[in-house]
Amino acid sequence: MIRTILEFLNLEPVRNRMQRDAEALRKEIFPWIGELVTWDDEERALTSYHIQEQHPKRWARNAKIVRCKVTSIYYEPLLIFTRKKYSGNRSLVLIRNSRDEYLYQVRGDQIEVVFNGTLSAVIEGNNLYSLKPRRVLASMQIPHPPHPSIIVGKDEIAQLLPAAIGSNGYISRAFSFMKDPEGDVEILFLTLAFWEMAKRILPED
């Protein structure tokens, strides 16, 4: 009874509740998934921060649920970002390309990563950790200032570039790749990269 009351008051977004809310977010974005361009190496390199469609149409800091499509530099819809906020610096962020789903369960400074429905890793600070045994899978560092890079293992995969639109309307890329990631390396890279993109794209809490 107490847990039910706390959940109703939005004071205790426990894991079970987050799972239910994640399913609701999936249903909301389902009509958009079929519009996404097939995710591949070429489209990954063309990813930008450009928002093609967003709800609500004007970001509102007090909006509990927001969502948007993000395009390539050629305005092709590549990604869907959606977020549900709770009280107390807690939220759900769901990011989707045509192939995979990345769900971030945010509880203060700790972010649990659910990849395609499976709890897979944790983000703390600038590091992505495995669950058991706990070890660093990927990290965000600044070997070439001023822009941060994502490192997987010992390899620098890509720099994260700032969002920019030139006076001629040119949209900049989100990533500058040093190495083409494949397989699990790409998933680890995208897990951190998408999280950083979400912090830049979605309205501030």
Main beta sheet strand tally, sense and closure: 12 strands, antiparallel
- End-to-end separation: 30 Å
Give the neighbour order of strands across the main sheet: 1-2-3-4-5-6-7-8-9-10-11-12
Radius of gyration over alpha carbons? 17 Å
Domains (count)? 1
Structural class: alpha+beta
Give the rounded overall mean pLDDT: 89
Query: Into which percentage range does the β-strand content fall?
Result: 35-45%
Percent helix, as a range, is: 10-25%
Helix-strand sequence: HHHEEEEEEEEEEEEH
Poorly predicted regions: 1-13
Tally of DSSP β-strands: 12
Indicate the overall shape. Answer: globular
Annotation field: number of helices: 4
How is this structure best summarized?
The protein is of the alpha+beta class. It has helices at 2-8, 15-33, 41-45, 184-201, and strands at 47-55, 65-72, 77-85, 90-96, 101-107, 110-115, 118-124, 127-130, 136-141, 149-152, 155-160, 175-177.
